[in-house]
Amino acid sequence: MSLVLAVAALLLKIAGFVFLFSAALGLLRFKDPLQRMHAATKAGTVGAGLSVAGAALAHGDGLTMIVAAVTILFLVITVPLAGHLLGRAIYVSGVPLQGIEGRDALQGVLKRHEVDPSSEATTN
Amino acid sequence: MMESLRQVDHFLTTASYVLLVLMAVPLGMTLVRMLAGPSYADRFVALDMLTGVAVSIAALTAAATGRREYMDVGLGLALFGFLGTCALSAFLERKERGRP
Q1: What residues contact residue A69 under an 8 Å CB cut-off, 6+ apart?
Q2: What are the pLDDT digits (tens) for B11-33?
Q3: How many Cβ atoms from other residues are within 10 Å of residue B86's Cβ?
Q4: Considering only CB atoms, which chain B residues are within 8 Å of A68?
Q5: Torsion over CA of A18, A24, A29 and A34, rounded to 10 degrees?
Q6: Which of A29, A69, B27, B75 is most buried (most C-beta within 10 Å)?
Q7: Considering chain A, what is the average pLDDT of its residues?
């Protein structure tokens, strides 16, 4: 294994960890479910893909490269789908969202469930 | 030359193990969000995030132990995580008010 390849693999793995950490930070710190979905789906998937690429590069085997490529391709294909489904479900389920009063562009397009204030806690 | 290559290999393995241990931090933060909620939507978002962390941990395990099979584990985890997210989103849309 050449030194350049090893350093590149290590940098990819570290970048993957940084992306995953920031995604988890956004998941903890953001105020409502839509914002948390925004942090978790995109940054989380980029972090996972970078880690897989770094691990495959460190391994350097042909079959491993193929499996890693398939994994990254699958992750990239499913991110928009999963994010869209989650966002739609979050809107429809009627949890409190920030800044939606008076500026709800989906009003009349999607039906929003009413939320019983006593059963679901407000966002913190 | 051979000796330095072995040192690089050793360093890479150690770095993979260190990153593997560090990956417990995002895992714990995701767990906190999943336990704290406050709504079901937050828990499902945390579950989606958990898939990414699990795939990354599988890939780092493959790099640390040198066993290729863990990459396949990562692929399987990505598949089932996506299916789980789809199913739970459908359940969340159908949820009646006030009840899970």
Answers
A1: A56
A2: 878 888 899 999 999 999 999 99
A3: 16
A4: 59, 71
A5: 120
A6: B75
A7: 84
Domain that holds residue B28: 2-94
With CB atoms and an 8 Å threshold, state whether B74 touches A71.
yes
Q: Which of B71, B77, B85, B97 to mutate to test the interface with A (most CBs of A within 10 A)?
A: B71
Domain parsing of chain A, residue ranges: 3-78
d(CA B57, CA B16): 10
The Cα of B13 is separated from the nearest Cα of chain A by a number of Å equal to 9
DSSP lists the bridge partners of residue A107 as: A110
Query: What pLDDT, in 10s, does the model give residues A22-68?
Result: 999 999 998 888 889 998 899 999 999 999 999 998 887 888 899 99
Residue B43 lies in a domain: yes
Rounded to two decimals, the ipTM of the complex is 0.86
